[in-house]
Hints:
34% helix
Amino acid sequence: MSKRAIARPDGGVAGSRRFGALFAALVILGAGGCGYHLRGTGSSLPPDIKTIGIPVFRNMTTRYDLDVKLTRAVVDEFVARGKVRIVGDRAEADAVLEGVITSFSATPIGFSGGGQADRYNITVTASIILKGKDGEKAVFSNPSFVYNQEYVVPVGGEFETFQTEAIDKIAGQFARSLVVSILEGF
């Protein structure tokens, strides 16, 4: 014998189905109103910011070319996301993103059998501020934005060569992390 739902005059089974559908609809609508959004689709930028100027970050470290690599990576990440347009002239920008690289370190964290360092942790710290057109109001500010990552130098490998390659990779990841923080407020 199969079980079948029988509609009752008092709403019974059919009424509980309607209640379930209504409840599900309310939950979905409520989630939309609480600020929830899928990662990569939201923006915590004010709606009037359509263009951003990004001058080359100031480099207060001794690491050559770090300013250029990080700035280029941040510009590329903004362009890839397509949320705002990057402009070269500050006068055309709705906001300006300024960065000062305050520290850079490559610390050995692993050693080969011969006592040679073969694994390093690179840490980059920067002071970041996104100012609106008026130049006074900060839209986003992080005076100590830190990014770190490990990299490996193969036995017999040239430290400087591998560090330069690691910085190229880290620049992209630094930029991704920074742009997500700015655009999505995480």
